[in-house]
Design goal:
globular, four-stranded antiparallel β-sheet
Length: about 90
């Protein structure tokens, strides 16, 4: 997957009755040997697939000083996409 370390990966299946309707996701640790704290890959029941890839050179800039621009952790991005959007 292009990451420089292993994830301590776990597969999760969310049934339709859950907030995340019908999805299979691969979660793992964003720090070597750490706790499961991110979703790296997955597909929802609508067929939307998402994969979180690593590019060490990424620079997302600083947060706005006034706090008006909300931010989302990269560790939550895949989960957000799969739980909010379909095909």
């Amino acid at each position: 997957m292009g990451w420089p370390y292993g994830f301590n990966s776990h597969f999760y299946v969310f049934p339709r009755s859950e907030r995340i309707n019908g999805a299979v996701m691969l979660g793992g640790s964003t720090a070597p040997g750490g706790p499961v704290d991110a979703v790296f890959d997955g597909i929802n029941e609508k067929g939307l697939a998402a994969n979180l890839l690593d590019l060490a050179e990424n620079d997302f800039g600083l947060a706005s000083a006034d706090g008006r621009r909300p931010r989302l952790s990269f560790a939550a991005w895949t989960l957000y996409l799969l739980s909010e959007y379909g095909r």
